[in-house]
Amino acid sequence: xxxxxxxxxxxxxxxxxxxxxxxxxxxxxxxxxxxxxxxxxxxxxxxxxxxxxxxxxxxxxxxxxxxxxxxxxxxxxxxxxxxxxxxxxxxxxxxxxxxxxxxxxxxxxxxxxxxxxxxxxxxxxxxxxxxxxxxxxxxxxxxxxxxxxxxxxxxxxxxxxxxxxxxxxxxxxxxxxxxxxxxxxxxxxxxxxxxxxxxxxxxxxxxxxxxxxxxxxxxxxxxxxxxxxxxxxxxxxxxxxxxxxxxxxxxxxxxxxxxxxxxxxxxxxxxxxxxxxxxxxxxxx
Length: 285
Hints:
The protein is α/β, with parallel strands linked by helices. It has helices spanning 16-22, 43-55, 67-78, 96-104, 122-137, 142-152, 166-170, 176-185, 207-219, 238-250, 263-269, and strands spanning 5-9, 24-27, 30-33, 36-39, 60-63, 83-88, 112-117, 156-162, 188-194, 197-204, 224-231, 258-260, 273-280.
């Protein structure tokens, strides 16, 4: 039996070195800044995206990889296997899954290609991809890996807050009236990912209260394996440092990686968001 090949997209935050080490193929999303289009995953491109967003420069577009990009990726993998599993960013946030399925059609009947919606993004998606790669490298079958990943998806939780509802309105996450009222009252919405969609959860008035809520959320878990903090900046902000200090007091000995969220998530929540991704389960690495 051929080893199952694992494919994902750039929203999983699997860098080139890790992809090579774990034998993972990564197809990047596309980021259009003005009249130029770049591959997603480059920190410089992400930083420029935020700058364009803050200055309201258009066009500013995050798009799924083309069908042709997936056709090429699948064809390359088919040279060494007839079993491919693709794990993609939430289909509620991007057409990447749809494009991947279309790209797989050229190998119909010659290669078994399964595509899964992780209902996740960033490190949450990355955890699932790493788990799939580890299982594949240990010789697990396609069915075994799919069963594993489907069991892990409900164990990943994402909560965040944003400074303004402006971008939530643009992405139709909240209505215009709600956004206007929120701006008038100085409300900072708390959001969570439910079935892969960014969904309003509750509202707070200050950053300090938002941090309290993030801490309360994480503290509800008994068996945390990994918690990642995501923010707009590459450098830790004062709010992130405060949250880190409180998390380290609550969970001594635990580490809490901090990462810059990507253009796709920014297209929904804007450049002033902060959140946590919690994985409750066993360690894979």
